[in-house]
Design brief:
The structure holds 2 protein chains of 2 kinds. Helices cover 74% and strands 0% of the residues of chain A. Chain A is built from 6 helices and no strands. In chain A, 14% of the residues are buried. Chain B is mainly alpha-helical. Helix content of chain B is 67%, strand content 2%. Chain B is built from 15 helices and 4 strands. Chain B has helices at residues 2-11, 14-51, 67-77, 88-105, 128-138, 140-150, 153-176, 178-184, 189-194, 208-211, 213-229, 241-244, 254-279, 297-322, 330-360, and strands at 114-115, 118-119, 199-200, 204-205. In chain B, strand 1 and strand 2 form a beta hairpin. In chain B, helix 7 runs antiparallel to helix 11, helix 11 packs antiparallel against helix 13 (254-279) and helix 11 (213-229) runs antiparallel to helix 15. Chain B is globular and about 60 Å long. Chain B starts with a helix and ends with a helix. Classes of the chains: A mainly alpha, B mainly alpha.
């Protein structure tokens, strides 16, 4: 099946690019990491397309790859970050990291074993179109949607307040 | 001969014929796009020469029509310099990214109705316009990376300027088209064209630019924002020669420089094609029944011709404005984008939505 092959290719690409964001053996330049994050986002958008969620895929590329990551690059350039040096690994950090990774792996393994993945799935319906999504957002999920909007508004007002020099 | 080809075509499975025709269409689109890029450069040089009362390049071939070939050969054979202080990988990547978005976006533009039973659009996506904006928004990386990878002052300043400029105007551009989609009720670009067939007042084409004041305002904002997005005068601040000695492309030479150049013209063609689709009826003309999908081969070719003709008129507009207008100052540019266009575009969305709701209540 072409879809299966595409899924494995895109999933592998997402994981590889994701790993290269945090641990790139060739370059420790923050801009390179940011560019790999862009590639991760784009290959994830490909996974959304395979799930027939075209709207989500387009918005993912538009918002994250096109706008948020450009801002990231902007900030990286303006902050004049040097190439990150290799830090010494502290014992405490190592233990805390291992414990948290172990916990996440345990959660994944347990939930995967419990749900029998890939079997007894309902037939996927093509619910990715914009009209359906809009109707869902303004009927079933109206309250969460409005709360998120207010959250964004609060963030915006906060930024304006912080960047204003003299408060009258 | 033709019969055997026909037999072979009918023997193909639906997947095979889809693959075959899509690849043919993709290659044809690419070829036409690249030819148009080459001749837009000639158009620019000839038109600017006429505007400045010169003759322009007329020596290579009849009327200078082989000039693109000469330019291309020159670009390929020039020595390619990679300065020692640049970041090599990103430096090489940036000119490639300059061309990619415009080419990818060709996929959703309906450039004709039918041609021998095939729809003249590569991918009839139901989120067509979002795909377009998504890919367009990736175009900024070429300039940002070129500025950063060049690792010297002027390219960097050009890159920073363009980042701020492009993300500012992207917002205005994205919001300006929302009224159109409120009218159409679908994000599919073919549906947008169907909504613009026929005439109004008996003679005026029913294109969105003429339909209502709201859609006309949307067109005005989109037009200005598209100049900013393609870095064309009066908004060509990223490459302001007098201030930045060329901006993001100073350190580039040979074919890499030419690719930035081609990327700019490809982006112009793409934005013109989007404007034609959204506001000027795409491949339709309201007279002689040319607004219905073609049934004959000739009609299909005529529709493609109409589409290309409209795109050409927009390209002339782009070139014309470049040689008539001085450049904006940077603060004027930002002021225009954030304090004029974005509020106006938001108000436009609101007014259109209220108007449509009001009408639907009758």
């Amino acid at each position: 099946m072409a879809t299966d092959i595409l899924f494995y290719v895109l999933a592998a690409l997402t994981l590889i690019f994701g790993a290269l964001v945090v641990a790139n053996p060739f370059s420790r330049n923050p801009v390179t990491s940011a560019m790999f994050l862009v590639l991760t986002i784009i290959s994830m958008a490909g996974l959304f397309v395979l799930l027939h969620a075209f709207f989500l895929a387009a918005v993912q590329v538009l918002v994250y790859a096109g706008a948020v990551m450009v801002l990231f690059l902007f900030v990286i350039m303006l902050l004049d970050l040097k190439e990150e040096e290799r830090r010494k690994i502290k014992l405490m950090g190592l233990v805390a990291g291992l414990i948290s990774v172990g916990a996440i792996v345990a959660i994944f393994v347990r939930s995967l074993l419990a749900t029998n993945p890939g079997k007894d799935l309902a037939e996927p319906k093509a619910v990715g179109d914009t009209a359906t999504l809009g109707k869902m957002l303004f009927t079933n999920y109206l309250l969460p949607f409005e709360i998120v909007s207010i959250l964004l508004l609060v963030a915006m007002v906060g930024v304006i307040l912080l960047s204003k020099k003299d408060l009258k | 001969m033709i019969e055997s080809v026909n037999n072979w075509l009918e023997g193909l499975s639906p997947t095979q014929s889809l693959l075959l025709f899509t690849s043919i269409k993709a290659v044809a689109c690419f070829a036409i796009m690249m030819t148009m890029v080459a001749y837009t450069v000639v158009l620019e040089r000839r038109l600017c020469a006429w505007i400045q009362d010169r003759i322009g390049p007329n020596r290579v071939g009849p009327f200078g029509l082989l000039q693109p070939a000469a330019d291309g050969i020159k670009a390929f054979f020039k020595e390619e310099m990679t300065p020692a202080h640049v970041r090599k990988v990103l430096f090489t990547l940036a000119p490639m990214i300059a061309l990619i978005p415009a080419i990818l976006n060709l996929a959703v533009i309906p450039f004709g109705s039918n041609l021998g039973g095939q729809k003249m659009v590569l991918a009839d996506l139901n989120v067509g316009i979002l795909y377009t904006f998504g890919i367009v928004s990736l175009g900024v990386y070429s300039i940002v990376l070129a500025g950063y990878a060049s690792n010297s002052k002027f390219p960097f300043l050009g890159g920073i300027r363009s980042t701020a400029q492009m993300i500012s105007y992207e917002i205005a551009m994205g919001m300006s088209v929302i009224p159109i989609f409120l009218y159409v009720g679908s994000l599919n670009l073919s549906d947008v064209i169907t909504a613009q067939t026929g005439t109004q007042l008996g003679f005026l084409p029913n294109w969105f630019v003429f339909q209502t004041p709201m859609t006309f305002l949307a067109f005005c904002i989109f037009l200005v924002a598209s100049f900013a997005e393609t870095n064309r005068t009066p908004f060509d601040l990223p490459e302001a020669e007098q201030e930045l000695a060329g901006g993001y492309n100073i350190e580039y030479s040979s074919i890499k420089f030419a690719m930035f150049f081609m990327g700019e013209y490809a982006a112009m063609i793409l934005v013109s094609a989007i404007m034609v689709t959204l506001f000027f009826g795409g491949w339709t003309l309201p007279w002689f029944g040319l607004d219905q999908a073609a049934t004959t081969l000739l009609g299909g070719l005529l529709h493609i011709g109409i589409f290309l003709g409209k795109v050409f008129l927009f390209l002339v507009l782009f070139v014309w404005i470049r040689w008539m207008w001085p450049r904006f100052r940077y603060d004027q540019l930002m002021d225009l984008g954030w304090r004029r266009f974005i509020p106006v575009a938001l108000a436009n969305i609101l007014i259109t939505a209220i108007w449509l709701w009001w009408q639907s209540g009758k």
